[in-house]
Amino acid sequence: LHVPVNKNIVFELRSQDVIHSFFLANARFKQDVLPGRTLVRWFNITKEGKYDISCTQICGVLHSKMRNFVVAESDEAYRHFTDSLYAAHAHKMASK
Residue 44 CB: number of other CB atoms within 10 A? Predict the structure, then answer.
């Protein structure tokens, strides 16, 4: 997940199976996610870097695999990242 620094990042959390808990320690963000509910939340990372995301609710046999990260970057780096995604998608669609 790539995000620009010093911007409020608004997103939805939902679970289809069991209780999960989205934890982004460096943004001081933790939210339990209950099945059948959609929660709208936000966070703001103020320093560039790569930050761990984890599920802190034991949720099943694959709980230990529920890890990812956030890359918080400058506006310019974020714009470059998103532009490269759009270019790759356009190239893929043009080659169909």
Answer: 15
